[in-house]
Every structure is written in structure tokens, then in C-alpha cells.
Design a protein that fits this description.
Largest sheet: 7 strands, mixed
InterPro entries: Metallo-B-lactamas, NDM-1-like, RibonucZ/Hydroxyglut_hydro
Oligomer: single chain
Distance between the termini: 60 Å
CATH architecture: 4-Layer Sandwich
Number of domains: 1
Pfam families: Lactamase_B
Shape: globular
Strand order of the largest sheet: 1-2-3-4-5-6-9
Helix content: 25-40%
Organism: Ancylomarina salipaludis
GO molecular function: hydrolase activity
Structural class: alpha/beta
CATH class: Alpha Beta
Family: Belongs to the metallo-beta-lactamase superfamily. Class-B beta-lactamase family.
Order of helices and strands: HEEEEHEEHEHEEEEEEEHEHEEE
CATH superfamily: Ribonuclease Z/Hydroxyacylglutathione hydrolase-like
CATH topology: Metallo-beta-lactamase, Chain A
Length: 281
């Protein structure tokens, strides 16, 4: 009886450990977009996040580092297992659901935007606000590299460009891969509820991307399960322009991060407009 009881206990422990390991392994879902481009999904995260690994022959860029909600999975180890070159982390912007796990990466890059450089302290660190990081303690990013804006730079037989595309956040950026016809837009555009901080900047950013690419481009967002079409960029731009011109009443109030916010829907595009950029209050 004792032996049977011990066997049952060990069997139950085995099942528990297996279940925990399965949950851990299933947190990140890898999608190979091509032999040098990966989407790392977090389907179990509260925001349904996606990060992107863009690989060259000499180095790779990880565009966002995940939500940080999974306390056991290791996105750094996962990224290292996919590539054999040094990896630099670049954030699409600094909201809490894109900066998780940042400190696991020794190389963090900052786009070479003069207004953003002023946030660096004497130790080349950016101290994110609680509004950005959703943390009662300041989140610190140690910057090791600078990335040029509006011009191609080489990762090793793969050239990409970074563009400043504010509107969702003052510090939002988009990666353009002309050779691969890829557009990585962060939170500027996706299928779902958009968060708008600055109407004019948002429209200008979308207009910039519309002129930079065409219908042959594959457009990848940081949230959701559906990819975007080129025409979706203009649909969002026109919806925001119509809102700016007509100032309609909100469709309804919704709860966002525990706070009530007014939601608008224009031509099928749902969004929240908050000029403070503080979606948490």
C-alpha cells in the first residue's frame, strides 16, 4: 500500500510538472515569416502581443521584447536559439506591454531622434515613467546603440529603415524592409481598438507609410491575430480625419485598465482618443 501510494504521488507530481512545462513552452508561439524573419506571439497575454525578430547575416533586431506577463518563459533564450548572430533589442515604443523582459537583453538600441536623446541621463539610461511602464517603480533601459532614422542600414545582407511614426505615442517607430516588402508598425495600426494620443500626428504617420510602401507589402502589427492590408492604413487615416472634422459623440464608454474611457467608431474603425496619452487614468 505504501509503495502504491508513493507511486501515485510521484505520478501526480509528474503530471503537474509536465503541465507546467507545457504551459511554459506554449507561452511563446513562433511563426517563421521567412528564413530570416520570425513573429513571436504571446497568445495568452492580456494584450495578445507579437514581437518580431529581424535577422541579418551579421546581426539581428528584436522589435519589442514581449509583455513580461509570463514569469517563467525566457524570450531571450528563445531568441538566441533562433539565431547565431548578436541580437539588439529595439522598442516600437515604451508602453508597458512592449518593454517586458527588456533587461534580459544586454544590447538595447534607441532610434536617433534628437527629442528622444534628451531623455538619456549621463549613464545613457532612459527612465520610463509610471504612465509608460505601468510600474510603481521607474523602469530603466540602458541604451548601448543608436539606430539612424529615415535611411537604410545593413544588418548583413539585409537592409532596413526606421521611421518615427508618432500618434499612438510620441515615441512610436516603424521598421520598413523594402527588399522583403515588410512593414512592422507596432501599435500604429492593427485590427482592434486603437489608442490615439495625437490625431494630426497619427494621420501624418499613416500618410508617411502609405507613401513609403505599396500593396505588395506585408504589414505586421504588435497585437491581434489578423494581419493588415495596405488599404487598412488609409482606412484608419480617413476615419481619424473624419473624426477630427465632425467631432461625433462617443459610441459608448468602455473599461480600459480599470478606467472608463469613451470609444468612437468611424467607418468600422474603433478607437479611443486621449490627448494625455495616459490610458491608465
Amino acid at each position: 500500500m505504501l509503495m502504491r501510494g508513493l507511486c501515485l504521488i510521484f505520478f501526480l507530481l509528474f503530471l503537474i510538472c509536465t503541465a507546467c512545462q507545457k504551459k511554459d513552452n506554449n507561452w511563446f508561439t513562433i511563426e517563421k515569416l521567412d528564413h530570416k524573419t520570425y513573429r513571436i506571439r504571446e497568445k495568452q497575454s492580456s494584450q495578445n502581443n507579437s514581437s518580431y525578430l529581424i535577422v541579418g547575416d551579421k546581426e539581428a533586431l528584436l522589435f519589442d521584447s514581449g509583455s513580461g506577463e509570463n514569469k517563467t518563459g525566457d524570450i531571450k533564450a528563445l531568441v538566441d536559439s533562433l539565431v547565431g548572430v548578436p541580437v539588439t533589442l529595439l522598442h516600437s515604443h515604451f508602453h508597458f506591454d512592449h518593454i517586458g523582459n527588456s533587461n534580459a537583453f544586454p544590447e538595447i538600441a534607441l532610434p536617433d531622434l534628437p527629442a528622444l536623446q534628451t531623455r538619456l541621463d549621463q549613464d545613457s539610461c532612459i527612465h520610463l515613467s509610471e504612465k509608460e511602464s505601468l510600474s510603481p517603480e521607474t523602469y530603466i533601459l540602458k541604451i548601448k546603440k543608436r539606430c539612424p532614422l529615415n535611411t537604410e542600414f545593413d544588418l548583413g545582407n539585409r537592409k532596413i529603415s526606421i521611421y518615427h511614426t508618432p500618434g499612438h505615442s510620441p515615441w512610436s517607430f516603424t521598421i520598413v524592409d523594402k527588399r522583403g516588402s515588410y512593414l512592422f508598425v507596432g501599435d500604429l495600426a492593427y485590427k482592434g481598438l486603437l489608442l490615439v494620443n495625437n490625431l494630426e500626428e497619427y494621420q501624418n504617420s499613416l500618410n508617411q507609410l502609405i507613401h513609403l510602401c505599396d500593396s505588395s507589402y506585408q504589414i505586421y502589427a504588435a497585437h491581434g491575430n489578423e494581419d493588415l492590408l495596405y488599404s487598412d492604413l488609409d482606412k484608419i487615416r480617413l476615419a481619424l480625419k473624419a473624426f477630427q472634422n465632425t467631432k461625433p459623440s462617443p459610441r459608448k464608454e468602455i473599461e480600459l485598465f480599470g478606467n472608463r474611457k469613451e470609444m468612437y467608431v468611424i467607418d468600422g474603425i474603433p478607437f479611443i482618443y486621449d490627448v494625455t496619452g495616459n490610458y491608465l487614468k
